[in-house]
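hey
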């Protein structure tokens, strides 16, 4: 549904009413099992528990905490202090009631506010008020209009070297209709999505009907926003199940999780990641975009850069991200799939690129014209204007590989005048030439910063 100006200006109040109406039904539902929680059950799943690790004596802030079960579970697990934040005053009131019922008022605090107004409630400019862990869990990012401002808030809450732990439903789910039978929305943010909702995921028979305002944020936008705000990736993983029975027509797996009927093992349902706030400044990190045709060896090269095993390689269907240490810099390398159907989406990853690495299969002479055309179009992109270019002439270990000098002539690299560039013959398989390419990146970026 097209959003009216009124809806856009009032989205926070619209969504607040939505979540206020859900609270009583969620508290009474079997999904949330409040009675079990009051008897001592832990609301956290093994996924979150493993990610969080030992939280004894940690200060934690739980963003978009709903009525606080996970917030209180964190306190039960030994956290020194846990603050829960949510936009729904009814949810916060219930959280405070549960804190009293479980004798956790001394170690917990609940704040009712729009997350974008959090700075009005916490003095985050004072170091003693910062947190060891920022935590967000399940159904959070789709309610955020500005993912960059959200990432700034996450970063501003963290101590240096603190961690952001997020377990979330995969953003690909936001593409589907409510019954998950057809694709209805773009994977990429096309503005607010306004809809009417009946019932609620924890009780589909609940006699409530509400308007909602949501946004689709693709995974790269979320991760990049966090990186730009001084966090670095330590873990990121997608999984094909949900720990909750919250989808229509769901089926239970043998290990007790849930999948969508008809889409079992076909799409990701969950996402988890850990990002750590840097002690140094974000300028010490570089965003590297790794592109090239399919079968050029990009994924193998990325694994070599990350010092990982290359005995088993599968083609990249979406993207991979690895953090690589190089001289004076930490390189966040984005490997984007090179299949023809994926290439139109490359432009969604151009923003804030520091270095473009373009990989060529030096042995596949039949595709030289195709790879030349793709590279030429990349160099015309406004968002990549002036971005240093490193061409890896890969697979030099093969007998029929073209020399780097011949590829230079074929690609007319000598005609490039608007950016530093380098072509480096290499073999991802033998690792020859890879180190030299990284050294060129470090030297070039260092020179540009002076």
């Amino acid at each position: 549904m097209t959003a009216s100006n009124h809806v856009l200006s009032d989205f926070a109040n619209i969504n607040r009413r939505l979540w206020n109406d859900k609270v009583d039904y969620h508290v009474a539902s079997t999904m949330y099992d409040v009675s079990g929680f009051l008897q001592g059950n832990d609301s956290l799943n093994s996924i979150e528990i493993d990610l969080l690790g030992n939280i004894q004596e940690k200060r934690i802030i739980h963003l978009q905490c709903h009525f606080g079960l996970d917030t209180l579970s964190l306190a039960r697990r030994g956290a020194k202090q846990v603050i829960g934040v949510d936009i729904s005053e009814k949810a916060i009131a219930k959280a405070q009631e549960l804190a009293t019922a479980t004798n956790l008022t001394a170690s917990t605090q609940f704040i009712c506010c729009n997350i974008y107004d959090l700075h009005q409630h916490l003095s985050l400019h004072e170091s003693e008020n910062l947190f060891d862990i920022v935590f967000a869990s399940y159904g959070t990012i789709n309610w955020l209009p500005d993912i960059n401002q959200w990432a700034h808030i996450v970063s501003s809450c963290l101590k240096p070297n603190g961690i952001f732990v997020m377990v979330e439903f995969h953003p690909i789910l936001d593409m589907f209709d409510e019954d998950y039978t057809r694709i209805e929305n773009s994977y990429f943010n096309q503005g607010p999505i306004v809809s009417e909702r009946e019932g609620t995921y924890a009780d589909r028979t609940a006699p409530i009907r509400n308007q909602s305002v949501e946004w689709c944020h693709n995974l790269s936008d979320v991760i990049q926003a966090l990186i730009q705000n001084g966090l670095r990736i330590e873990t990121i993983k997608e999984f094909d199940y949900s720990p909750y029975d919250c989808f229509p027509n769901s089926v239970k797996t043998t290990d007790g999780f849930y999948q969508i009927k008809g889409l079992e093992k076909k799409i990701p349902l969950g996402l988890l990641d850990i990002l750590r706030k840097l002690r140094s400044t974000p300028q010490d990190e570089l965003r590297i975009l790794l592109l090239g045709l399919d079968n050029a060896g990009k994924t193998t090269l990325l694994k070599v850069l990350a010092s990982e095993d290359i005995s088993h390689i599968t083609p990249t269907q979406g993207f991979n991200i690895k953090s690589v240490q190089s001289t004076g810099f930490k390189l966040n390398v984005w490997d984007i799939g090179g299949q023809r159907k994926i290439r139109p989406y490359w432009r969604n990853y151009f923003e804030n690129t520091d270095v473009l690495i373009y990989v060529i299969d030096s042995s596949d002479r039949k595709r030289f014209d195709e790879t030349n055309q793709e590279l030429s179009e990349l160099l015309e992109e406004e968002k990549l204007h002036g971005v240093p270019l490193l061409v890896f002439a890969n697979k030099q270990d093969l007998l029929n590989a073209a020399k780097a000098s011949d590829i230079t002539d074929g690609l007319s690299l000598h005609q490039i005048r608007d950016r530093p560039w380098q072509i480096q013959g290499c073999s991802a398989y033998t690792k020859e030439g890879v180190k030299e390419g990284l050294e060129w990146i470090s030297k070039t970026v260092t020179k540009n910063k002076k």
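The chain is about 25% helix and 25% strand. The longest strand covers residues 158-169.
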